[in-house]
Amino acid sequence: MEFPYGQDPGAPIRSGIPEHGRIPKYYAAKVEIAALLEELGEGEVLPTERELALRFEVSRETLRQALRELILEGRLRRAGRGTVVAGPKMAQPLSLASYTEGVRDQGREPGRRLVSLDRFPCPPALAADLGLAVGDAVWHMERVLLADEERVGLESTYVAVERVPDLATDFNPDSSFYAYLHRSLDIGFGDADERLETVLATPREALLIGTPGALPMLLIHRLSRDTEGRPLERVRSLYRGDRFSFTTHLGRPAGG
Question: Which CATH architecture has domain 4-85?
Answer without folding.
Answer: Orthogonal Bundle (1.10)
